[in-house]
Write a structure and sequence with these properties.
This protein has 86 residues and is α+β, with helices and mostly antiparallel strands. The chain has 2 helices and 5 strands; from the N terminus they run βββββαα. Strand 1 and strand 2 form a beta hairpin. The protein is globular and about 35 Å long.
């Protein structure tokens, strides 16, 4: 899994050759979710409400970087790490 960030036990990844719309994946314990980068909404899966709030807070701060990594993934280029939520 191409991990781009990790904070508070939450792992954030963007997969190569993934389907549109631009999104990232978040994993926390046994829960997994795909989250739209542009709308910051849940596409599939689930996360506990507190975790979803942290993920959306982080993603809203790093939206531009997420979109750049999405573009890199589509071109099979190495992804850049994104600062965690602190």
């Amino acid at each position: 899994m191409p991990e781009i960030s990790r904070f508070f036990g939450i792992v954030i990844a963007i997969f190569y050759d993934d389907h549109n719309p631009p999104h990232f994946h978040a994993r926390y314990g046994g829960d997994k979710a795909a989250i739209s980068i542009n709308e910051l909404t849940l596409i599939e899966g689930q996360l506990p409400p507190r975790v979803m709030g942290l993920v959306v807070e982080w993603a809203s701060t790093h939206k531009e970087e997420l979109l750049k990594d999405w573009d890199k993934a589509r071109k099979n280029q190495p992804l850049l790490a994104i600062e965690p939520l602190i």
